[in-house]
């Protein structure tokens, strides 16, 4: 697919799969714990909000998973997606209706990864890569449809009550770790489609994790602070920005899904993600769009912060008001600086020459033999996860094009 192919599955990929599952289970457990605490204390409103966020996120994720199963039916003959549920439509439908399709994908990915990493079984590598790439996208969707709103809710409740209990602190920590880690996991999954780029090392992954954390946390804090003084306007604020973001996604003519209904679900979900963090969705250079987005988010967060400062209770907020007022914009600005530093110094920039498919050329009828060899290689090559490959191409097309133009210019000079 336009030069994109899969990198080989390694023990580090298996470790990321395991850690992603652990983070997911811990996040779900902490959410259930918090919801049960609200119910026991008699805070039925917050209990209902928590359950609603959990159900909304689960339904959205299951919908994406089900759409992708329908799109990938043709891959079953090649034994790429080795999931029994996908080979049994009724079982698959039942699992997704019961909100278990996402969890079943996790279990299958771990099993396939174990077969590849420990047992060294042939033929399972592309299955686990296919599964983990879909899981990285599903986890990202789950993160911004549930973890980010819940993190905002927990922060708002602590500000509203002017107190923080242990369960709330644990939930906030779990949500922050889950959000930042899933963004890194998604980024690593994208890079596996780029044979021309070096894989992301631990230090690079940590820096990537750090600047995402420093950009998302101030945004969440600004929304929570605004909600603590004008709680009835938070929904209006979200809907206004969400509509603007949906229009922006639509104007970029995305084609991630294979159906019209699925594509609009994707655009609505991207708009939800943009409320908290940047997410590139279209081909071309991203610097301009990223600059517009961060400038807009800085302006919006500043308005939210100023509104909170104007309407806050000076007496109750005195212990932390000045600290938060200074920390929120400074952390966001520092996060942008670390992001710039990452792409300047820590972003893997090693480019390798593209590998070309070997052609068998004989002295007699060489053209016919070469075409037959290339056709055989193409038929034997396992299919690529089109969705994630397309995202990788869109995300890196601007950088790749710039580097190719630079290389062509140097070659012309030489």
TrEMBL record:
GO biological process, one term: engulfment of apoptotic cell
Main location: membrane
Membrane-spanning parts: 9-26, 46-69, 203-226, 233-252, 293-311, 323-344
Keyword entries, A-Z: Apoptosis, Cell membrane, Membrane, Transmembrane, Transmembrane helix
Catalytic activity: a 1,2-diacyl-sn-glycero-3-phospho-L-serine(in) = a 1,2-diacyl-sn-glycero-3-phospho-L-serine(out)
One GO CC annotation: plasma membrane
Membrane topology summary: Multi-pass membrane protein
Subcellular locations according to the entry: Cell membrane; Membrane
Family: Belongs to the XK family.
Protein name per Swiss-Prot or TrEMBL: XK-related protein
Lineage: Eukaryota, Metazoa, Chordata, Craniata, Vertebrata
């Amino acid at each position: 697919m336009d030069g994109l192919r899969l990198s080989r599955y390694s023990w580090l990929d298996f470790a990321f799969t395991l850690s992603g599952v652990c983070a997911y289970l811990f996040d779900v457990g902490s959410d259930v714990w918090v919801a049960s605490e609200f119910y026991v204390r008699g805070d039925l409103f917050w209990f209902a909000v928590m359950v609603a966020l959990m159900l909304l996120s689960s339904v959205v994720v299951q919908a994406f998973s089900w759409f992708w199963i329908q799109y990938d039916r043709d891959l079953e003959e090649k034994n790429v997606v080795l999931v029994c549920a996908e080979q049994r439509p009724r079982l698959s439908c039942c699992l997704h209706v019961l909100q278990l399709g996402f969890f079943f994908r996790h279990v299958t990915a771990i099993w396939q990864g174990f077969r590849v990493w420990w047992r060294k079984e042939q033929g399972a590598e592309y299955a686990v890569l296919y599964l983990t790439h879909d899981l990285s996208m599903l986890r990202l969707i789950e993160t911004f449809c549930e973890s980010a709103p819940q993190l905002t809710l927990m922060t708002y409740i602590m500000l509203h009550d002017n107190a923080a209990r242990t369960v709330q602190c644990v939930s906030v920590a779990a949500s922050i770790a889950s959000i930042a880690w899933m963004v890194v996991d998604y980024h690593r999954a994208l890079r596996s489609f780029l044979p021309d780029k070096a894989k992301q090392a631990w230090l690079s992954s940590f820096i990537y994790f750090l600047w995402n954390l420093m950009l998302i946390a101030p945004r969440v804090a600004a929304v929570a602070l605004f909600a603590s003084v004008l709680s009835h306007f938070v929904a209006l604020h979200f809907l206004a920005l969400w509509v603007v973001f949906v229009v922006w996604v639509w104007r970029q003519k995305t084609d991630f899904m294979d159906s019209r209904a699925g594509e609009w679900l994707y655009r609505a979900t991207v708009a939800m993600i943009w409320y908290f963090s940047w997410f590139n969705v279209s081909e071309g250079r991203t610097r301009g769009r990223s600059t517009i987005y961060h400038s807009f988010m800085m302006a919006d967060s500043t308005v939210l912060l100023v509104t909170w400062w104007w309407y806050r209770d000076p007496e109750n907020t005195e212990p932390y008001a000045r600290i938060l007022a200074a920390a929120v914009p400074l952390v966001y600005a520092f996060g942008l600086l670390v992001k710039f530093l990452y792409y300047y110094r820590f972003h893997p920039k090693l480019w390798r020459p593209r590998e070309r498919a070997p052609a068998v050329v004989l002295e007699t009828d060489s053209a016919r033999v070469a075409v037959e060899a290339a056709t055989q290689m193409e038929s034997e090559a396992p299919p690529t996860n089109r969705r994630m490959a397309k995202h990788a191409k869109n995300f890196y097309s601007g950088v790749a094009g710039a580097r190719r133009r630079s290389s062509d210019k140097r070659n012309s000079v030489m």
